[in-house]
């Protein structure tokens, strides 16, 4: 019998030349400086004298085709049919005629796309997939993000922070949302509940044992069936066993909490890059709008906004004022769970007489 | 017209407020598609019960071993039949975006048409992996959608233990701080590893990210197995007109507080213009009639702060290239690791220079494929075997730029010391 004809894929990663705005293509690698005439607008000047204005607007990241077509209509009308996206799912329109900037902004805002996210603003949250599509999610990042950006709408549209603020949200401790000035990450608080009837058929047991960072999982016979057991005294509730073995259910409607981390910085500007640090946990997974998370994020942001000096990122600010004052100013409790006991933890302790009074 | 929508009282609450709502977008799609009607029901069920209900499986396209993320519903009735039957399969296709994520509207409209026809009509621009995520497709339609997307010239992204989709910043296309052609590096490297992207056979994932300067807009140090970060070796450039313009607007207090005192290595001083040193490694620029900024480029670590503040007045030099760091990854399994320097400077001015970058990447991936344990990232592998073993394996010489400081413990066997010193001296003599 004849096999059905299958199309072979064309394996090639394309370049971006044909997608560039014509003024960007003409001035590739030849830019001189930029400034920001207003929040949401970058103005770049080339050594050739050419200029472009980039207008940045927020989107909901996962977009229906009608939204994308509307964004395309706007690009065709104002921006010579070209757009680009930032790493935080903001869309950017590039125009070479300053007179187009104001009407372009008006058109975006009329259609519900907030213009902002530049400079010292709170940009859109980098986030993960969540209940909509992920196979291991503890929460729905899209919903958390929508609620948070509603609350931070004015901070997106204005540049009133000491320096830029970058947020992320992750639906499990793998932290796919990434390091950020403020990160919201699921923190499980109970060991996995094991469905012993399924383990033998679904999981490659040695691989699951190997995944555990604290060697808390071992093979066991349960009710006469090969399964796995968890030493619950050792378990750190990280959820690493769950992806390779879904019968080790780690997500729990009550006991999967949200934690807040601060001070992650990817840039090398001033200090070397830093990882974010846990400053709050135990917040309820309170869909659909997560008010408790919003409240803590806002509290941290307002303390930073009030107290940090110009150009201090969250990490730089805390570096100056010290952690005790961070907890004082935000009103967040400093608990024993924030004292690191993982490998390398002694480097996170204060080995000095440096105390701020 | 699609079937009657499910009641979604929780999701409805995500339609209020000023930020664009993905729920509103889904509801719009649900007007025409039973698929999305049931997807909304499925998601509402997650919101009610606070749990996810998708499980993985095996779905792919002809010729490739990865790139499709399969999802099958776990919300079943008592007979094991899917409760939201029209959305029982909700696979995602990962597609690599062009470097810098630039598009023309013709391309985006074609994506929409394809995904409206074969998929849910929901597209994420972009996922955290850097991919265009075509979200929501049945097993039957994956191949059809893929064939049309591939015909447009786009290729599939990575998933599983494979080289993954890379990311590059806007870079040379629109940024004066760009120190190399990020898009060219991105394209050349990825085209070298298409086989490793499409046919997962590595110990675990391997990610490249390309940032044009130390601002590292792609988060490459924290997230990439191999981070390529633009830098320069010669003196910082200055522009007197822009410096005076900046000073006129911001004044001496801001110059001191925001520029001079924030330099991490104290490389910047304010001097009377007549006292500025004229050594070969000094950059200087007058900010008014009598005073200048003096920058000692030997002390500067190319952190980008002063350039960020005084854009154009201060700028990267001309001898441009990149610093390469290896080993960034998130928590699992040993805790998050930052990438660390393995090559302080690689020249990236001529097109041939980029071939050397590709060659280095190939050596690293070959070593990783041979030596990493299953499910071990490069950062974890290097932690296990030590940086020196890794460097010897890929044929890269050690350099004092690779450490914060030399070792702080005596637990090392040093009986090869004299030979090492002799080798270093021989190399110096030969140079």
What does this structure look like?
The complex is a heterodimer of chains A (357) and B (431). Chain A is α+β, with helices and mostly antiparallel strands and 357 residues long. Chain A has three domains: 17-110, 2-Layer Sandwich (Alpha-Beta Plaits), CATH 3.30.70.3340; 126-189 and 253-339, Sulfite Reductase Hemoprotein, domain 1 (2-Layer Sandwich), CATH 3.30.413; 193-248, Alpha-Beta Plaits, CATH 3.30.70. Helices cover 26% and strands 21% of the residues of chain A. Chain A is built from ten helices and 15 strands. Chain A has a five-stranded antiparallel β-sheet with strand order 1-2-3-6-5, with helices on one face. In chain A, strands 7-8-9-14-15 form a five-stranded mixed β-sheet, covered by helices on one side. Chain A has a two-stranded antiparallel ribbon with strand order 10-13. In chain A, strand 1 and strand 2 (41-46) form a beta hairpin. In chain A, helix 4 crosses helix 8 (291-307). The model of chain A has no long low-confidence stretch (mean pLDDT 96). By secondary structure, chain B is of the alpha+beta class. Chain B has three domains: 9-151, 2-Layer Sandwich (Alpha-Beta Plaits), CATH 3.30.70.2500; 167-231 and 321-430, Sulfite Reductase Hemoprotein, domain 1 (2-Layer Sandwich); 237-315, Alpha-Beta Plaits (2-Layer Sandwich). Helices cover 35% and strands 17% of the residues of chain B. Chain B has 14 helices and 17 strands. Chain B has helices at residues 9-12, 22-30, 34-49, 105-118, 139-151, 182-192, 194-198, 220-223, 240-260, 305-309, 351-371, 378-385, 387-394, 417-430; strands spanning 54-55, 68-69, 72-73, 92-95, 102-104, 119-125, 132-137, 167-168, 208-211, 226-232, 237-238, 268-272, 282-286, 291-296, 314-315, 320-326, 340-347. In chain B, the strands form five sheets. A five-stranded mixed β-sheet of chain B has the order 8-9-10-16-17. In chain B, strands 2-4-7-6 form a four-stranded antiparallel β-sheet. The model of chain B has no long low-confidence stretch (mean pLDDT 97). Chains A and B meet through strand 1, strand 4, helix 2, strand 5 and strand 7 of A and helix 2, helix 3, strand 1, strand 5 and helix 4 of B.
């Amino acid at each position: 019998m004849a096999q059905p004809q299958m199309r072979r894929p064309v394996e090639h990663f394309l370049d971006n030349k044909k997608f560039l705005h014509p003024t960007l293509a003409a001035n590739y690698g030849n830019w001189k400086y930029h400034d920001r005439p207003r929040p949401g607008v970058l103005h770049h000047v080339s050594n050739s004298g050419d200029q472009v204005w980039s207008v940045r607007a927020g989107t909901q990241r996962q977009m229906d085709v009608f939204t994308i077509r509307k964004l395309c209509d706007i690009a065709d009308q104002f921006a010579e049919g070209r757009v680009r996206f930032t790493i935080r799912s903001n869309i950017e329109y590039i125009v070479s005629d300053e007179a187009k900037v104001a009407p372009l902004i008006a058109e975006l805002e009329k259609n519900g796309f907030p213009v902002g996210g530049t400079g010292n603003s709170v940009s859109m949250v980098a986030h993960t997939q969540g209940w909509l599509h992920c196979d291991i999610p503890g929460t729905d990042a899209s919903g958390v993000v929508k609620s948070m950006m509603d609350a931070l709408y004015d901070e997106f549209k204005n540049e009133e922070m000491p320096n830029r603020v970058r947020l992320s949200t992750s639906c499990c401790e793998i932290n796919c949302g990434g390091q950020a000035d403020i990160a919201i990450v699921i923190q499980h608080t109970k060991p996995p509940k094991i469905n012993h009837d399924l383990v033998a058929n679904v999981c490659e047991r040695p691989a699951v044992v190997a995944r555990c960072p604290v060697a808390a999982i071992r093979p066991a016979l349960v009710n006469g069936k090969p399964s796995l057991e968890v030493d619950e005294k050792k378990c750190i509730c990280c959820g690493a066993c769950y992806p390779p073995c879904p019968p080790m259910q780690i997500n729990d409607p009550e006991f999967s909490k949200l934690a807040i981390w601060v001070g992650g910085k990817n840039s090398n500007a001033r200090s070397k890059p830093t990882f974010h640090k846990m400053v709050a946990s135990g917040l309820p997974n309170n869909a659909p709008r997560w008010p408790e998370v919003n409240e803590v994020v806002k509290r941290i942001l307002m303390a930073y906004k009030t107290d940090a000096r110009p150009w201090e990122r969250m990490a730089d600010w805390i570096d100056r004022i010290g952690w005790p004052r961070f907890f004082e100013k935000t009103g967040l409790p400093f608990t024993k769970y924030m004292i690191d006991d993982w490998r390398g933890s002694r480097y996170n302790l204060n080995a000095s007489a440096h105390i701020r009074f | 017209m699609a079937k009657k929508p499910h009641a979604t009282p929780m999701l409805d609450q995500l339609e209020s407020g000023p930020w664009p709502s993905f729920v509103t977008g889904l509801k719009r799609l649900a007007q025409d598609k039973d698929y999305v009607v049931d997807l909304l029901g499925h998601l509402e069920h997650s919101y009610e019960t606070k749990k996810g209900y998708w499980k993985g499986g095996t779905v792919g396209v002809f010729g490739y071993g990865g790139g499709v993320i399969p999802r099958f519903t776990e919300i079943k009735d008592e007979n094991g039949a899917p409760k939201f039957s029209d959305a029982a399969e909700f696979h995602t296709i990962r597609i690599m975006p062009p470097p810098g994520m630039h598009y023309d509207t013709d391309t985006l409209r074609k994506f929409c048409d394809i995904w409206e026809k074969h998929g849910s009509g929901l597209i994420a621009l972009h996922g955290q992996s850097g991919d265009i995520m075509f979200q929501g497709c049945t097993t039957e339609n994956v191949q059809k959608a893929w064939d049309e997307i591939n015909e447009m010239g786009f290729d599939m992204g990575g998933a599983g233990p494979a080289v993954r989709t890379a990311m590059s910043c806007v870079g040379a296309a629109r940024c004066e701080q760009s120190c190399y052609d990020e898009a060219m590096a991105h394209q050349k490297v990825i085209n070298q590893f298409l086989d490793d992207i499409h046919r997962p056979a590595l110990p675990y994932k391997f990610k490249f990210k390309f940032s044009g300067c130390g601002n590292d807009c792609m988060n490459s140090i924290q997230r990439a197995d191999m981070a390529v970060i633009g830098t320069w070796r010669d003196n910082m450039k200055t522009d007197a007109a822009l410096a005076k313009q900046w000073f006129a607007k911001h004044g001496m207090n801001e110059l001191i507080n925001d520029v001079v005192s924030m330099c991490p290595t104290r490389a910047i001083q304010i001097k009377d213009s007549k006292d500025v040193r004229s050594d070969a490694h000094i950059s200087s620029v007058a900010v008014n009639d009598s005073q200048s900024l003096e920058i000692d480029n030997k002390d500067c670590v190319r952190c980008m702060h002063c350039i960020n503040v005084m854009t154009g007045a201060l700028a990267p030099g001309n001898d441009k290239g990149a610093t390469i760091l290896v080993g960034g990854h998130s928590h699992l399994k040993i805790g998050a690791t930052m990438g660390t320097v393995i090559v302080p400077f690689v020249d990236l001015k001529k097109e041939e220079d980029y071939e050397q970058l590709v060659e280095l990447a190939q050596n690293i991936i070959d070593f990783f494929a041979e030596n990493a344990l299953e499910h071990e990232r490069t950062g974890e592998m290097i932690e296990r075997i030590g940086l020196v073993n890794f460097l010897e394996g890929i044929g890269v010489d050690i350099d004092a730029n690779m450490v914060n400081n030399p070792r702080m413990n005596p637990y090392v066997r040093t009986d090869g010391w004299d030979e090492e010193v002799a080798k270093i001296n021989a190399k110096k003599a030969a140079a």
